[in-house]
Specification:
Blueprint: E1 15-18, E2 21-25, E3 38-42, E4 47-50, H1 57-66, E5 71-75, H2 86-94, E6 97-100, E7 117-118, E8 124-125, E9 132-136, E10 145-149, E11 154-158, H3 176-186, E12 193-196, H4 205-230, E13 233-234, H5 235-242, H6 251-267, E14 271-274, E15 277-280
Parallel strand pairs: 4-5, 5-6, 6-7, 11-12
Antiparallel strand pairs: 1-2, 2-3, 3-4, 8-9, 9-10, 10-11, 13-15, 14-15
Helix pairs in contact: 3-4, 5-6
């Protein structure tokens, strides 16, 4: 077990981030998940496992072996398949309650996991002194929740904020306007660090939040500029123009976020859609 606050993220190794917080990363590294999905153990005796990850037996075994005491709660930030499916296996092994939000019906969720408790914005879950405060942060997914651990000052950000990449916004369940509003909300949360769903701890949380807001707004402005220059183009034609600074291997993911930007801009009546084609809206209309 390592004991430093920041370290390389290595799957299967329990890393202590605070006196009552451990990180164990699942062995599911990929372009989309980075080093793997981070699971967190929170508590000194009775503990909560936050985001148990994909249903990988050896990862669940590692979580149980690393727990400082009985696992009483399994807490989900959202229900994407790389974050929640191991909850059922972990519950069978420990008897813990699964706490989270209902999966949206967009066909991209873990629908097998059954909740024992639905958590709502402002509610807390976990052992006394180590409660996790739920903060609703829709955007990446409509049912996304971040959790603040006041005892350590860590914000568990799920996929809302990552380290090493920006999260993908998958429309129609994902919503760029909601994502930006959720980031604005987090600007006012007192936290000492951000423990993301993928990647190492972000030790300058406010700078990370403000940097993401600025990045998304710059990307949106670039989309409008490139769309104005093109006149009328499809989403597929627009992606390489807006993401010309990103390796083409990531353009498939970028397409989803660009579509979310365009949907936001369409609602704001700044762009318009005609079938598969997009264009900047005439201000005179």
């Amino acid at each position: 077990m390592t004991s430093q606050r920041e370290s390389a993220v290595v799957p299967g190794i329990a890393t202590r981030l605070a006196s009552a917080v451990l990180r164990v990363t699942a062995p599911n590294a990929s372009l989309l998940t980075g080093p793997g999905t981070n699971s967190y153990l929170v508590g000194e005796r009775d503990c909560a496992v936050l985001d148990p990850g994909p249903d990988i037996e050896k990862h669940v075994d590692a979580l149980i072996a690393s727990a400082p005491g009985p696992v009483r709660w399994i807490v989900l930030t959202h229900t994407h398949p790389d974050h929640s499916p191991a909850a059922t296996r972990l519950k069978r092994a420990t008897g813990a309650s699964i706490v989270g939000t209902v999966a949206p019906q967009d066909g991209r969720q873990d629908y097998a996991t059954r909740l024992d408790r639905i958590v709502r914005d402002g509610e807390s879950v976990g052992a006394a002194g180590h409660e996790l405060l739920a903060i609703a942060t829709p955007g990446h997914a409509s049912n996304h929740i971040c959790y603040l651990h006041a005892a350590s000052g860590l914000l568990f950000s799920g996929d809302h904020i990552l380290n090493g990449s920006t999260t993908v916004i998958l429309a129609p369940d994902g919503d760029m306007a909601q994502y930006l509003a959720s980031l604005e909300r987090l600007r006012h949360v007192g936290m000492s660090g951000i423990a993301p769903g993928h990647g190492a701890v972000l030790t300058e949380p406010l700078a990370a939040v403000e940097g993401l807001i600025a990045h998304r707004l710059r990307r949106e402005a670039k989309a409008v500029d490139r769309l104005r220059a093109a006149g009328r183009v499809s989403l597929a034609e627009l992606v390489p123009r807006v993401y010309d600074d990103v390796t083409p291997a990531l353009h498939g993911f970028a397409r989803h976020s660009l579509e979310a930007h365009l949907i936001k801009l369409e609602r704001e009546r700044r762009v318009e859609r005609d079938g598969e084609f997009w264009s900047v809206r005439d201000p005179a209309q």
